[in-house]
Design a protein that fits this description.
By secondary structure, this protein is of the alpha+beta class. It is built from 1 helix and 5 strands. It has one domain. The relative contact order is 0.27. It is found in: Membrane.
């Protein structure tokens, strides 16, 4: 799966809220950085990209509003890594979601 923009993110967060998923929680939604790719701090997804699903084509352009990281990923160019959608325990203290390696 992948998230291509803010409307899809709001839909996903709404579905998780309806399912009464307890926070904190971490969900992998298809973000991966291959071993040959480096961390890029200037990019919203920091060098991670969406995995294709069933031969589909994941969006290449990522809107800046999806560049919310709850915890910045480690800087690396040597190790494959995944990132997930992290739901915060108490959204009143900050954003309700962010990416986490």
């Amino acid at each position: 799966a992948w998230v291509s923009g803010e409307p899809e993110m709001h839909l996903l967060l709404g579905l998780l809220a309806e399912a009464a998923v307890p926070a904190p929680a971490l969900f992998w939604v298809g973000l991966k950085r291959n071993a040959s790719a480096c961390t890029h701090e200037e990019q919203p997804l920091r060098g991670f990209s969406w995995e294709g699903v069933e031969g589909g084509t994941a969006p290449q352009e990522v809107p800046a509003e999806l560049g919310r990281w709850g915890q910045e990923p480690l800087r690396s160019c040597l190790t494959a890594r995944c990132a997930g959608l992290h739901l915060a325990e108490d959204p009143r203290d900050g954003p309700s979601w962010g990416w986490k390696e």
